[in-house]
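sorry for the late reply, my laptop died twice this morning and i had to redo everyting from scratch. anyway the thing you sent over, i finally got around to it. pasting the sequence first so we're on the same page, its 228 residues, then the predicted structure underneath. double check i copied it right bc i was rushing
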Amino acid sequence: MNDRVDENLRRRLEALIGSEITAVTPVDESAQRGKVRVGRRIAAVLSSRDVERLGIRPGTTLDARLAKAIVQCAAFDSALRAAMRILARRPFARSELKQRLEAREFDHETVSRVVDHLAGLGLIDDEAFAREALAQLTRRAPAGEHLKMRTLARHGVEPEVARRILAEESTQTDAEQDARRLIASRYAAMQSLAPQARARRLLALLARRGFDEELIERLVREATGALE
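ok and here's the structure:
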């Protein structure tokens, strides 16, 4: 339920204020969601949990307070289902998931509640996401800290979380060793090139993989002797 749909529901309920709810019928066989009916009209569709929590049953009078609560619950339920569909494709960091939901026109408050709810269930975890993102990044080839930070930032990982994960990782890996491994893996294919051409290729390769500029120059000079 984005803002436009949310407004449509609000107007529909406002037109029914003072009426009695006549039935709550299951949406499907799972009975996890119910249609709240006023006469022949479907006033709203809510989760069965929200129907029970709000005390909705045949004979309940739809007043302004209940109408507002229904709108809030319906918005949360709709945003939660959208978030679950998004997460079914791949993991997301909190900030990136928020951006995806807000791009679908869910309001900021509802999005924040949904993301907090999912975090509480352990379905989104920025630290776990960051570790997996870095593992995927370095699976193909070693990477330096600059590229790692850019990758995490692109996925919406908060800078503080990114720095903490990189600090943990730095105790387990050595940037210079990673850069040397990358040079060794590509150097044989460059043997036919002139030293200056090899140096340019290696400089570009290490820069793309996010290694520190001073480290890049030192290792390329050592490998090719072409930066004198």
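The chain has a mean pLDDT of 89.
thats about all i looked at so far, will dig more tmrw
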